[in-house]
Design goal:
heterodimer, A: mainly alpha, Glutaredoxin, Glutathione S-transferase Yfyf (Class Pi), Chain A, domain 2, 2 domains, 4-stranded mixed β-sheet, 12 helices, globular, disordered C terminus, B: mainly alpha, about 5% strand, membrane (chain A), mitochondrion outer membrane (chain A), Metaxin_GST (chain A)
Chain lengths: ~270, ~350
Amino acid sequence: MSLAAEAFVSQIAAVEPWPENATLYQPLKDDQILLSDHASSLAVQAYLRMCTLPVQVACRANAEYMSPSGKVPFIHVGNQVVSELGPIVQFTKAKGHSLSDGLNEVQKAEMKAYMELVNSMLLTAELYILWCDENTAKQITVPRYSTPYPWPLNHILAYQKQWEVKRKMKAIGWAGKTIDQVYEDVSQCCQALSQRLGTQPYFFNKQPTELDALVFGHLFTILTTELTSDALAERVKNYSNLLSFCQRIEKNYFGDNDSSSIVGRISPFS
Amino acid sequence: MLKFCPKKCFRVTIDAKNNMAAAMELYCWKGDWDLPSVDPDCLTVLAYARFSGAPLKVHKITNPWKSPTGSLPALKTKDDGCISQPHKMIIHFRKQKYNADYDLSAKEGADTLAFICLMEEKFLPALIYTLWVDSKNYVDVTRRWYAENIPFPLNFFLPNRMHSSFLDRLRLIKGDNGLEPGEEAEKELYKDALECMTLLSQRLGNQTFFFGQSPSSLDAHVFGLLAPLLKMKLPSNKLQQHLKSLDNLCHFCTNILTLYFPPEGADGPSRKASSPHGGDNSEFDNEPHKRRNQILSVFVALGAMLSYAFLTGIVSVHRVDSHHAVQKTEAVRIGEDEINGED
């Protein structure tokens, strides 16, 4: 989202209350959405639930192309469209809903740093496994990604996406990594998160923040998604406090009337 | 200085012990603007080595083709071959028991990882942008420095190649919207970077180092990325101004520079023990090459002049047999004239 648009949105946003019909768009949940997109989408949903802002989830095959930044998920609130967790957090803040107001300066800095840790290690590892691991790409990622498109568009778009991800991996120095090194990075990231969390209910003690939403989105998705091997989930399962952290957020924020929705939404890739 | 004494003494003993075993060799860009090296990656590794007391033989060079990996920095080790990525070098130091993070708690270790990610995601792209893409800085400072310091003839194409590889990297990191229009992309990068510096400043507070009294790998990373921005003289200096307004970060950088990288000559005994030929060596290396290059260039120039003279016929050599000398007096005379003319 561009800066000018962002400034505009936050000005407008301040005056209008949160509408009832806010909608979150994501790809089709049963046979299209990928692990990484699902994680991001779940993080946004968790964040909005923590803020007690109602949102309906709508699945669209072309969600990626509807989004202003080309990334899913995005929310449609009143007459504004905002994509990705970072801008959405700012957007809700402009409307007067914030989870991190109670933190002091140092804690805010730490929260931002840990959010970058999740984005740069967990998210990148997910993308690597989805697109750069030949087995996973062939059996899961490419067929799912190209479901809505007819031949030959399905091959072209999937190939294009894979090429894009691979180039990005090259730019950040991940291209030379083996799959084991990537799992090792995931372990390292989980270990850092686990140590930071310790025995607290949330990362910054009693109150959840956007960091909790982000971590929950990724870890819960990794734990509940079936890939070609369960090595990724196994890495997360080594940390018992992270597991109970996920269960806690699931129970507190997704446990009410539609507990089925979260389980149902996460369709195992089979 | 006094309070760091125990660490220094410790370093001296380690150095003495390792003097026998060949030390690791680090190839890095040479320094300028009062920095031990101009390159952020090199600075990070140098700082970490100083913090942990790892014995290093440092080659400060300006020709990346002379490094064993073809890029800088490069660490030549005994058992792991050559390493070119800074974080792998730090892991290698750690394996050799030179660990600057030894005293950190598990939670502090986690914080280290998180803040390094924060810097790499939010600050590094803007630093690359301001040094290599911003046209004023690139033309006046970055390209100029590399063009003046990289030896001929590499200086004609290496700076451009570095420029385009950095540009590609930025494009890929920031998605496919081109960087050329500048405005929008630049503002976004700078906004992230300014926020990142503010966060670091808040995290540092009024401590000497990020985790109290002794420096760790996070300090090395922050120093490596911030020190060039602080010390270089950039004409387009939006990032620089913001950094200079954050007093504790500036003080943090200058503090590390004075404590761990004292100006050459005024060094403590530890440095002499660890790298007696560090600085001199590189100049020593350069000297014979300089002489060789001079001689070579004279020969090349002479050869070119002579071959031009022969090819265009300014000088021509006629072979004259002694029997025919009488018959061909004219030809001989012309030949002689021309040979004399050459002299």
